[in-house]
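input
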Amino acid sequence: MKKTFPYIVLIAALSLAGIAAYYSVFGLSKLFSAKATAVIIMASALEISKLVTATFLHRFWNKISVLLKTYLTSAVIILMMITSLGIYGFLTSAYQTTSDELIVLDKQVNIIEMKKNRFQEQLNSYSAEKNQLANSISELTKGLSNNKIQWRDKESGQIITSTSSKTRKVLQGQLNDFKLQRNDVSLKIESLSDSITNLDLQVLDINTNSEVTSEVGPLKYISNISNIPMDNIVNYFVLAFIFVFDPLAILLLISANKAFSIVQNDSKTPIEDHKDHFRPPHPSDAYEEESEQRMNIIGQNGNDGLHYDSGSIEQENIYNEENKMPIQSEPAKQERASNAYWS
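output
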């Protein structure tokens, strides 16, 4: 895991940098739509150069001049700002498309609401008229019941009560007219109520089945509870994106380089740790081997010590009579090399 983690960091850094570059390139192409292809080519080259420059600065910071450090660092910061500007253009353009569709839906809802308000005004008027007709009908009904004439009979002197047929006919005619009007008004009220209900269903269908409405639903909710316009909320979110997007990609790329350096340094083991595995033989090793040989000879021939090999290590140095220089045999040379190593 220790060796693979730098690769994971590198993959994350390149993925984030690639996505940021994609948004930035196409965002800049929308800002300069007249030359979109040229802007895409230029922005792509700058994005790649930015990553290479950041890696170069990390690896060779202590080996380059101050002027070069200053220029390259400034170039990376400016390119990060350009990338952030491109991402801002891309995201705001996407929101603007959604906002335009939302404006169209809001206008449709407003038109339906205007029709609903007109129907509601008519409904209120007819409702008031119906109440007036109901009051008139009630009064006429009372008039018919009170349509009485009293007079005293001359012969008997008694009070006689009777109804006026003429008045009754007039009152009955008015009552029938008011009832017809009330029925007509009731039909109109019912029709207007149905129309208002249909308009409410249309508004509900627009608000529930529209994809745009579902997309901006959370933003509307935040806007309502915070009393901040939705455009401002979207702007805050976009700024939060651009402040962490490309800077995080650059820092992850630098972190990946640092992780590779750490793993590479940890994998290097000092040579001294393996010195014992490759050491030449110690002089005591030869003496121990010679002692073992002597003990074997003593065990075979007795303890008189007459069968030692005359070519022991102490007799290996032979002198040349002409040059008076010692001639060393191969075992003696190895012994001197061992003594030099262990000394």
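quick obs: The two ends are 44 Å apart (CA to CA).
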